[in-house]
Write a structure and sequence with these properties.
The protein is of the alpha+beta class. Helix content is about 20%, strand content about 40%.
């Protein structure tokens, strides 16, 4: 059995579309009060630009995703 944990930081682009920033195997489970300032810092950097679109324009939400793979054969 293989278990993985990822932290998904969800943003809105400057065009209003969804954009995720995924961190695999985070060192620790963080609280909302620890994650929110980091997401806001990413937004405030305003250094990302993909063909005129800022992919990290608005901090939306964050979540942990746990995945378990069990081989059966």
């Amino acid at each position: 059995m293989e278990k993985t944990l990822t932290l998904e930081l969800k943003f809105k682009t400057s065009e209003g579309k969804n954009k995720n920033l995924t961190l695999r195997n985070p060192a620790a489970e963080l609280t909302a009060s620890a994650i929110k300032p980091v997401m806001e810092a990413i937004v405030s950097l305003d250094v990302f630009d993909i063909e005129g679109v800022n992919p990290y324009s608005i901090a939306d939400s964050a979540r942990y995703v746990e995945r378990i793979i069990t081989d059966i054969l």
